[in-house]
Design a protein that fits this description.
Number of helices: 4
Number of strands: 12
CATH superfamily of the largest domain: Rod shape-determining protein MreC, domain 1
Strand order of the largest sheet: 1-2-5-4-3-12
Strand content: 25-35%
Radius of gyration: 43 Å
Order of helices and strands: HHEEEEEEEHEEEEEH
Amino acid sequence: MSPIVKKKGERFTLPSKYVLLILTAVCVSLMVITFNTDFSGGPLRDVVGVVIVPFENGVSAAGGYLKTRSEQLAQIRDLLAENEALQSQIDELTIENTTLQQERYELTYLRDLYALDSEYEDYEKIGARIIAKDSGNWFSSFVINKGTNDGLAVDMNVLAAGGLVGRIEEIGPNWARVLGIISDNSNVSAMVLSSSDHMIVSGNLSTYAKGVIDFSQLVDSDDVVEGDKIVTSNISDKYLPGILIGYISTISNDSNNLTKSGFITPAVDFEHLEEVLVITRQKNIPAEATGQVEEETASEE
């Protein structure tokens, strides 16, 4: 082993391994002295009281501290394991709660569809699930998972919880595209349920952002007021009569002082749609329809 050489101007430091070795030797020596020496009297007892006893107290305190820390670390490990188990239970309960909420929502929605089915029991219907939609927040145009293989056809009316959704505008063997009444290119011949006054309900995505769509060409009548129910009319060439569209939200006189226009709040929530009902019957206007019927239905798309 090469000797420790101290350079001039350099502060002398003893390597830590030597410090540890020296302290170990001192501890062993003091332990030997403690167990093999009689401290019952004399000057040696005073030396023990001044040197050894404080050292032993320090060693005892250090041992107690290490024991306490060891117990605390063991408790921390137990708490961490318990916390991990509890977190796992929380995750499972969260998933279970989410599933139950989804099932509850679907059950409520299906109950509403069942009530709607009962309300229009004169019409044969088939249920379908929405599998795709156009971009945007609203279900203004979407695709369902039923088609010609299921007996569906173009212009069949589509319902959802609340009332009228729209009609089938395009179809395939196992799919169909539905045009919603809120779409910009949708027009429905409608009437006020309480007075049978006719109007045209026009889709408008801009106004539907506020929860309403347009109506126009309502013959001026003091019997029509806000809150009145609006349903599909019997002169429509694409929609079966008596299907709820919505409720008059606002109404105002047109500049010609002959007709009125305003806004309707649709009965269907076009932001949350999952399941729909398709009426498996198409509206058919007889050939001998009057000119008035042709004029009214010409503007309907």
